[in-house]
């Protein structure tokens, strides 16, 4: 197995002659460095969800219409998902710290472009490029953690990453509601993007000082055919599902969906041929020989489908169905965020004692929370308020928090350090694609049922479907290892 070269930041290299600890062995990710990379990872996750509560305001100001509003969400998610594995490979080649800095700087610039967009199409274009910047930045976070930590410190860092990821998903909609309502300096919805700029500046300053440079000692060249086929596979699946309902399912959507299995098969065959020939494909099929990845990756797909769909549907239901404002709709999710974060912090200790079984328990708890939400919707709609939502959201958040950090840790626990970039890229691609798929499928189901059933019954049916997806997650969690290193 090749070794990963780990280089300290510039300031550390300059002082290596006077610091014995910096001249021997790989650099260790400091507490400040870990905070910095987690900050960088939170930004793209928050920005996937932050627009949900701002869509009505964007529509009103830019006269976007349903199709373009879908693209504001989907354009970001598509470019983000399509380029994640490539971003991980580039980090292995050119240095993960370098790509993290480039990605963060690009994220700040594209956020500024989103905040200043004069019309809906400009906003869509800026969101697509913002997603591409996210794909450069995010894979470097997990790869850096894998390459510059070990043992209990790595376990703690992975637990914090999982806690941050889940919290960021919920906090995105809470923060979006607060910023839209605050109307900072008359910026309205634009503040949800402009707020990223000062955060990025701080992040760049911290990263330059505290994040160690790591890269693969024998980086593989970019797999151009694999990259193009993966991009085409994701586009043929996600583009028609996200745009189909808003554009009344034109012919291209059905042709695209029909092409998806053939393109996906071509991607697999090309990657397998390259792997067997001794080359390094974009997603090496041999990577799935790693047992932790093979067992831990499948549950992430249904978990993320249910999470992404739920967050989109609940934002629409609370604002349009119950008449809540952006702030109230965001604050209604605070119990879920608090429960998720608390469960995530307990995760490292629990996984050490119970292994993958803790994720099975988490799925059962999440299912219980969804049942409570369904009963509350059936009983109280359209008078459902914060008190009625509280028990279901609290318990669902607790169950989610017992799953996601555990799954992240298991997936990457046995991936070799020299494949940290591609391993993290594959995992985050699966998660991100599934989040977008959840918005497309559960969101489309909810919006399609609403005219015939009314929003309350449509929400109850959608939550029942989500309950089935959670049950699938729980079944897949049964395959997780009983002990986790």
What's the helix and strand layout?
Elements: E1 4-7, H1 10-14, H2 20-23, H3 31-49, H4 55-62, H5 65-94, H6 96-115, H7 120-148, H8 151-182, H9 191-194, H10 196-210, E2 213-216, H11 224-243, H12 251-276, H13 291-321, H14 326-331, H15 334-354, H16 357-380, H17 386-401, H18 404-412, H19 420-453, H20 455-477
Helix pairs in contact: 3-7, 3-8, 3-10, 5-6, 5-7, 5-11, 5-19, 6-7, 6-10, 7-8, 7-19, 8-15, 8-18, 11-12, 11-19, 13-18, 13-19, 13-20, 15-17, 16-17, 16-20, 19-20
What do you see in this structure?
The chain is an all-alpha fold and 485 residues long. The chain folds into two domains: 27-222 and 290-477, Up-down Bundle (Growth Hormone, Chain: A), CATH 1.20.1250.20; 223-281. Helix content is 78%, strand content 2%. The protein has 20 helices and two strands. The protein has helices at residues 10-14, 20-23, 31-49, 55-62, 65-94, 96-115, 120-148, 151-182, 191-194, 196-210, 224-243, 251-276, 291-321, 326-331, 334-354, 357-380, 386-401, 404-412, 420-453, 455-477; strands spanning 4-7, 213-216. Strands 1-2 form a two-stranded antiparallel ribbon. Helix 7 packs across helix 19 (420-453), helix 11 runs parallel beside helix 19 and helix 19 runs antiparallel to helix 20. Residues 1-26 have low confidence and may be disordered.
Helical percentage: over 70%
Report the portion of residues in β strands: under 5%
- This entry's quaternary arrangement is single chain
| Sheet with the most strands, sense and barrel status | 2 strands, antiparallel
- For the record, what CATH class of the largest domain applies? Mainly Alpha
With strands numbered from the N-terminus, the spatial order across the biggest sheet is: 1-2
Flag low-confidence runs. 1-26
Q: Write down the domain tally.
A: 2
Number of strands: 2
Put simply, the count of helices is 20
Structural class: mainly alpha
Q: What form results from the Cα inertia axes?
A: globular
Task: Give the second-level CATH assignment, the architecture of the largest domain.
Answer: Up-down Bundle
Fourth CATH level, the homologous superfamily of the largest domain? MFS general substrate transporter like domains
User: What would you report as the Rg, rounded to the nearest angstrom?
Assistant: 22 Å
Distance between the termini: 19 Å
What name is given to the CATH topology of the largest domain?
Growth Hormone, Chain: A
The secondary-structure element order is EHHHHHHHHHHEHHHHHHHHHH
């Amino acid at each position: 197995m090749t070794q990963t070269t780990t280089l300290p930041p510039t300031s550390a290299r300059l002082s290596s002659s006077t610091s014995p600890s910096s001249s021997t062995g790989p650099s260790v990710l400091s507490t400040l460095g870990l905070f910095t990379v987690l900050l960088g990872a939170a930004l793209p996750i928050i920005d996937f969800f932050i627009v949900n509560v701002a869509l009505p305001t964007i529509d009103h100001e830019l006269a976007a219409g349903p199709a373009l509003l879908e693209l504001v969400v989907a354009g970001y998610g598509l470019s983000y998902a399509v380029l994640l594995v490539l971003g991980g490979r580039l980090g292995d080649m050119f240095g993960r710290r370098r790509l993290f800095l480039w990605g963060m700087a690009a994220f700040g610039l594209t956020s500024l472009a989103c905040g200043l967009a004069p019309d809906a199409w400009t906003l869509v274009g800026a969101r697509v490029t913002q997603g591409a910047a996210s794909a450069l930045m995010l894979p470097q976070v997990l790869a850096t953690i894998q390459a510059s930590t070990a043992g209990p410190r790595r376990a703690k860092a992975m637990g914090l990453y999982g806690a941050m990821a889940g919290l960021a998903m919920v906090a995105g909609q809470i923060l979006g509601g607060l910023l839209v309502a605050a109307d900072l300096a008359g910026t309205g919805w634009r503040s949800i993007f402009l707020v990223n700029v000062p955060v990025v500046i701080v992040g760049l300053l911290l990263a330059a000082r505290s994040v160690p440079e790591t890269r693969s000692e024998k980086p593989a060249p970019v797999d151009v055919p694999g990259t193009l086929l993966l991009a085409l596979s994701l586009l043929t699946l996600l583009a028609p599902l996200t745009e189909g309902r808003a554009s009344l399912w034109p012919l291209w959507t059905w042709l695209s969906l029909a092409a998806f299995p053939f393109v996906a098969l071509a991607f697999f065959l090309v990657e397998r041929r390259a792997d067997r020939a001794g080359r390094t494909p974009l997603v090496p099929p041999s990577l799935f020989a790693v047992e932790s990845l093979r067992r831990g990756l499948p549950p992430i797909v249904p978990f993320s489908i249910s999470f992404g769909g739920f967050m989109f549907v609940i934002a629409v239901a609370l604002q349009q169905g119950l008449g809540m404002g952006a702030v109230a709709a965001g604050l209604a999710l605070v119990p879920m965020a608090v429960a998720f974060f608390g469960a995530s912090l307990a995760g490292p200790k629990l996984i050490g004692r119970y292994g993958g079984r803790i994720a099975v328990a988490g799925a059962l708890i999440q299912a219980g929370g969804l049942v409570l939400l369904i009963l509350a919707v059936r009983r109280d709609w359209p008078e459902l308020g914060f008190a009625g939502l509280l028990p279901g959201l609290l318990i669902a958040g607790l169950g989610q928090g017992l799953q996601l950090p555990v799954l992240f840790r298991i997936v990457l626990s046995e991936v070799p350090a020299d494949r940290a970039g591609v391993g993290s890229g594959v995992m985050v691609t699966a998660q991100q694609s599934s989040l977008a798929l959840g918005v497309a499928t559960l969101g489309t189901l909810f919006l399609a049922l609403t005219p015939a059933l009314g929003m309350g019954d449509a929400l109850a049916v959608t939550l029942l479907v989500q309950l089935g997806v959670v049950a699938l997650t729980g079944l897949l969690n049964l395959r997780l290892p009983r002990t986790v290193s």
